Amino acid sequence: MNYKTKNFRAQANKVLRSLILAILFSVSLFQPAAGDEVDVTFGETKVENFFPNGLRFSVKIVVQNYNGKFEFYYRLGEAEWVSYPIYCSPNTRDEVEYFTCVYYLNYEVLPPQLTISYKWRLFSPVNKVNKYSTEKTIIYENSSFNWNSLHEDKLTIWWHDHPSEFTKQILTVATDALQKQEGFYGVERHWCINRKVGVIGLSE
After folding, report:
1. C-alpha–C-alpha distance, residues 88 and 69, integer Å
2. d(Cα 14, Cα 138) in Å, to the nearest integer?
3. Per-position b or e across 92-117, b if 16+ CB within 10 A of its CB
């Protein structure tokens, strides 16, 4: 009688363990992946140029029952990405819930013809959301002039109201100076932006 009881308990434990494993497997198999619970639609970003005072980015993001963070990412030229948390105002129109997000990029001086990449991000550990909009790139320019550009290796020169021959001479002199500096200091120089003087240049 004692043997049968032990055998029954052992069989019951095996069945119980099998059921627990099956339940855990089902939960892990059918649990939605992070970021799939909330349907997000990023509208087209409107970019307003207030040269020389900066840029204003605004977008409409359609998302329902969302309680999380909004961030704006931007990159100046080939520099590192920078992110800023932003407040987005909730709205409802024709029974559609959406948020209006605005970010104003304003440095002391942003040099003209600066390439700026940007994107938006939604993040919420509660809703399991981590989604980015499509990355876009614009050129920050003074629209008062008709700009032209020349590029060679690591240097790009923008100009207006001058003959192209004059600009080619400048590019040749600048490229030669860069090569001499790299040889003299024994380092390869990379793109950077000097925020204090607002000049795109090359730095270690």
Report:
1. 9
2. 63
3. eeeeeebbebebebebeebbbbbebb
The pTM (predicted TM-score) of the whole model is: 0.66
User: What confidence score (pLDDT) does residue 49 get?
Assistant: 93
pLDDT digits (tens, 9 = 90+) for 191-201: 555 443 333 33
Q: What tokens appear for 41 in the block?
A: 């639609």
Tokens coding 187? 């380092």
Cα-based distances in Å from 17 to 6, 12, 13, 24, 26: 16, 9, 6, 11, 14
Q: Averaged over 129-136, what is the pLDDT?
A: 94
Examine residue 52 and say whether the peptide bond preceding it is cis (omega within 30 degrees of 0).
Answer: yes
Contact 13, 32 (CB under 8 A): no
Q: What is the mean pLDDT of residues 114-136?
A: 91
* Numbers of helices and strands, H then E, in the chain: 2, 14
